[in-house]
Each structure stands twice: as C-alpha cells, then as structure tokens.
Amino acid sequence: MKITVMTSDEQFITLDVDPDESVENVKALLEVETSVSLQQQQLQFNGKEMRNSDRLSGVGVKDGDMMMMLSLEIRVNNDDLRLNPDGSAVNPSAFQQHIRRDSRSMAQLLQTDPAMSQALLGDDLERLQNLLRERHQHRMEYRRKQEEELALISADPFDVEAQKKIEAAIRQKGIDENWEAALEYNPEAFARVVMLYVDMEVNGVPLKAFVDSGAQSTIISKSCAERCGLLRLLDQRYKGVAVGVGQSEILGRIHVASIKIGHLFYHCSFTVLDAPNMEFLFGLDMLRKHQCIIDLKENVLRVGGGEVSVPFLQEKDIPSHIRLEESAKQAALGQGPLAESSGAQDKNAGSASRSQNPDYVANAFLIYIQGSDFEAKVTKLVELGFDRGAAIQALKLFNGNEEQAAGFLFGG
C-alpha cells in the first residue's frame, strides 16, 4: 500500500510499504529520504505518536493515509562526550547514544571496524569501554613508532645499531602496509572461518556432519555410534591407533550403514574412534565413493555427481557445543599454521582449512593402523635401517604385511 508522510518542513514523501510493516522500518526508509536519523524522528497518525514496535495495520494505517514526521532536536552535553586519559568514555552511555544517532559514522564503522560497531549497537558498556581503551593504545603505539622513525632519520648514518633499527623499521613498515591493504581488499581474512557442516541422518538419527576433504576416513565417535544404534555392529578386529596431530584409539570399524543426505539414502562405512571431542566426520573416502563436490560458490555439498544438493549450515545453525570446540581449537592454533585441505573435487575455491588439536585426529594426515602388533612391525623395519615414517607408509600400503613392506623399502 502507499502512504504519504508530511515532514515538519512541509515536504511530502510517498512510500510503498507493506500493511504489516513496523514503524521502525518506516523510520529507516524516511532516514534515507530525509537524512534525519531514526532516533530523531517522531511519527504521528491521527495526532497520536506511534511506537517503533507498532505495526501500521495495528494502529489503523490504510492505503492512501497520511502521517506526520516531527524532527526532534537532541541536545548533547559536550562534557559527556569527553574521553578519559586511557581512551575510555567519561559517560559511555551518552557517548554510545551520540554515535548511534550519526548514521554516516555508524555505516563507516560497520565497514571498517565491525567490533566497535557491534559494541556501540549492543548493551555491554564495559565491552565498549575496553574497545575504546584498546583503540587508544593502538593510536599511542602508532605515534610512538612515528617518533622513532623521525629519530632514526636524524641518526648517524655510520652507526651500525642505528642502521639495524632503520632496516627493522623499513621491514615493519612493509608489513603494516600489507596488513592495511588486507583490511581494505581482503577483510574476510581476519574473520573466523566457519567450518563446513551439513545435515545428515545416520541410521535414522539426525546429525550435524563435519565435511572434511582432508580427512582420510569417515569417522564416528563411540558415543555417537551408540546413539545411532550402530555400536552392536562394531568389528573390533580393526582396532588400532589413529595418528595425526596427536593420536586417538581406533575401537574398530562399522562396515556398512545407511546415511541419508537430502532425500536419498547412501551406504557408508565408519571408523569408530574414542574421541569425545568429535561426533561425526564425513571424510575423503566417502566423498570419493559418492562423487561429492564441495561447491563453495553456491555453498552446497553436491552428492552423487549432483543428484542431491544440501546447503552448508550457517554458523547460527551449528550447535553451540561444536562452535565452542572449534573456537578452542582455533585458539590453540595461535602459534602454528593451519593444515591445508587436500580437496575432493572442490569447485571454484577449494576446501576450508582445518583446525588442529591434540585430541582432534581427523586431519589431513590421518593414518589408520590395523592390528595390535603394528608397532612391533614398525620397530623391526626401523631396526633394518629404514625411516620410521617410510616404514609406516609401507606397512599401510601392503595392509600390514611386514615382508612385502620390507621388500618394497629395499627395492626403493
């Protein structure tokens, strides 16, 4: 329906809105048309003020009706907007409200400083104060570096120590410029990457499955297998140790069970791990078997060459306990690089990097070892003069056959 809004300076603005539109959204449209911030608007209909939460139809507004927009002057005490020596606000609430009313400043902050914009839009004033202090420290550090650079320019050119400092300053400047360019052209690189999860059913039980093209095997935890009614099918002859970043005990293998992806059923086999931090991982073996495509352009997993497509879950749809585990794993990676995925027919962009954690063994280097005497076989081959890693790979290649592995290594 169409409504007409008359402003306090006698301008007439026609808007095409839904009858159930909220008053707050109408104010947002008027902010674009009039440059009067949403907080400074007061909308009246039939002489009565309308609240932001009201619906147009709820207050009796119909097609062709007219309403009045009044512009409210908001007076701000400048003392309330002052900052303390540490960068925090003297009156954080007044400071927050003042910035909120400036739509241009908020739009810029949303682009350049999402953390600050979220703090300004949120209710946690202590978080806002901490961010203001942090930004103040960054500014002070930047000024200190500038002063050091000026001092180095006037330093003795034959002073070896001064030249080393100049070299370090030039190198750091290049790093800072590279960081600033990344903020401008590649800001998403600084955001936390959400791992790839899809909805699946295993033996009729719905699960959030982690899709990991860098994991060698499809893995299910003991507790998850029990919940899905599959633990009775566990073949303990396939006991062993999973070695990757850390290690975990392999309890055995479930040779075949049905999984439902989308509206179709597929046969799947699982390695069962005693890994409480990991529930279900859809690995490279089943990705290959069912001709899966990780399509990051469309953000879907295609199965069976495309006969089924299921969307990757948004962060809000991933259970909180899984998100917390991922955050802990990523925090543990602060001192080391991420393991790159090998990709399983990844389309356009390639698969995501995976977090590493000593208890999280389903990574790109997952080695699954059969038989309780495997370590003894590795030791024998090492005693013959072979590298331990080569011995493990050879035994894997020949399914634990010690003689064939030795022959292969001697022949190499």
TrEMBL record:
InterPro entries linked to this entry: DDI1_N, Peptidase_aspartic_DDI1-type, Peptidase_aspartic_dom_sf, UBA, UBA-like_sf, Ubiquitin-like_dom, Ubiquitin-like_domsf
UniProt biased composition (Polar residues): 342-355
Main localization, broad class: cytoplasm
Region (Disordered): 335-355
One GO process term, biological-process aspect: proteolysis
PROSITE patterns linked: UBA, UBIQUITIN_2
Protein name (database record): DNA damage-inducible protein 1
Gene3D superfamilies found in the cross-reference section: Acid Proteases (2.40.70.10), DNA helicase RuvA subunit, C-terminal domain (1.10.8.10), Phosphatidylinositol 3-kinase Catalytic Subunit, Chain A, domain 1 (3.10.20.90)
Location of the protein in the cell: Cytoplasm
Residue ranges annotated for the Ubiquitin-like domain, each copy included: 1-70
Cellular component terms per the entry's GO annotation: cytoplasm
PANTHER family registered for this protein in UniProt: ASPARTYL PROTEASE DDI-RELATED, AT13091P
Residues annotated as domain UBA: 371-412
The organism's place on the tree of life at top rank: Eukaryota
Single GO molecular function: aspartic-type endopeptidase activity
Family from the record: Belongs to the DDI1 family.
Keyword field: Aspartyl protease, Cytoplasm, Hydrolase, Protease
